[in-house]
Amino acid sequence: MKSEIGMTIVFGAIAMSLWNIMPRLMNDAWHARDFVPAQSYTITNYKCTNWNGFMFNACTTTFVSQQSRESRWITDWRFGRAPRDPVRLLQQRDDASSVSTDVSLRTLWNRLLVALMLGVFGVFLTSALIVKAMKADDAPIGDAPSTGPPLQPMGRSGSARVTFGKRHA
Description:
Blueprint: H1 2-30, E1 35-37, E2 41-51, E3 56-65, E4 71-79, E5 89-92, E6 99-101, H2 102-106, H3 108-138
Antiparallel strand pairs: 1-5, 2-3, 3-4, 5-6
Helix pairs in contact: 1-3
């Protein structure tokens, strides 16, 4: 039961991650050529973190709108070490609220690969949960048939004396 709960929690975390990653990722993929340097936003912070030494990196760009002073952020997950290049904020030509960075657009295929890996892992996890549930349904209910004589408790039972290692004639 514990493993099913754990797998369900991991599946939920994967689903939430994909739910947050995919809209911006697809927008960047469809409109990669429509981005121009941002005029109405300014970067306030750019931080990258390497996970497991070199396996993954997460870069978060925090920026503020020059008109409303509203702060927003975008996070990109990639394979490999974090890029060390300076970052430039970009906005979509026709939609100024759609923001990305030049590093995000350069590493678009890497970001797609991370999302694909999360999706495939989620599918395998779901199939493992289904198989485990089906095996639980096939398990016999009640006591399993025993092949040997019933086990007797050790120690004294009633007035009979237990003697270990002695044979009775």
